[in-house]
Amino acid sequence: MTTQDPPPEGDVYDGDPDSGDAGGEHAGGAGTDYRFTLANERTFLAWLRTALGLVAGGVAIQQLVPGLASDGPRTLLAALCVGLALVIAAAAYPRWRAVQRAMARGDPLPRNVLLATLGGGIVVLTALALVLVVVA
Amino acid sequence: MSREQPQRTDLAWQRTALAAAACTGLLLHAAATTGGVAVLAAPVALVTTIVLAATGAGRAARLRRDAAPLPPLLAATAAVLVTATTAAGLAALLVTAGGC
């Protein structure tokens, strides 16, 4: 996690006693730099967007490009897209929570296996799409 | 508190809602052309879009006051809805391909 500037003194989230939010462990923890918790929130949303983008891609392959290949291979490519999206969507929340916990405890951030999963999945999808385009 | 961080986070919520809206459009197209399970998947995506947009608006209002972290319930709701949209989309694809 990199930032351009060190956090200024006092720019940490200490919880809002009026709302009953004490900034506990699940919330990133009292004393966690607010920029890190917001960055983690944006990363979580980026994973969700990636999943939604893969769903859109899969549905588009199935619905909008009938000339790409016959029904079987096209459905396989679309199902792989949406299947990868399902894995990413299901793993996004546990990842966000694990990072919140690690930041609250001052531990190193947990290893991110999602990146390797997404990278490998995209390589497979791209290779399959290339084969379909060439064969078609 | 810097104003850039809440703005970036607000924009991230808006982008996510837009991505869900794009999915909704495609699933509505699939429902209109093929019917089947896509007819059920499109409303799931629509609900996801609405909830993400509303949650984003609520987060933006909260972040204008202070830099409170995202409540776990909101994160879990967003993740469950996106997962449900994805599962519904996969079901729509497979059932449509199976000729149901």
Shape by Cα distribution of chain A:
elongated
Largest sheet of chain B: none
- Strand order, sheet with most strands of chain A: 1-2
Number of beta strands of chain A: 2
How far the N terminus sits from the C terminus of chain B, by CA atoms, comes to 55 Å
What's the quaternary structure here? heterodimer
Shape descriptor of chain B reads elongated
* Average pLDDT level of chain A: 82
Rg of chain A, nearest Å: 20 Å
Q: Encode the helix/strand succession of chain B as letters.
A: HHH
Q: Tell how many strands the DSSP assignment of chain B holds.
A: 0
Distinct helical segment count of chain B: 3
Note the total helix count of chain A: 3
- What does the average pLDDT of chain B come to? 91
Q: In percent terms, what proportion of residues of chain B is strand? A: under 5%
Residue windows where pLDDT falls under 50 for at least 5 positions of chain A: 1-11, 14-28
Structural class of chain A: mainly alpha
Pfam family, one (chain A): DUF202
Organism (chain A): Prauserella halophila
Protein name (chain A): DUF202 domain-containing protein
Subcellular location (chain A): Cell membrane
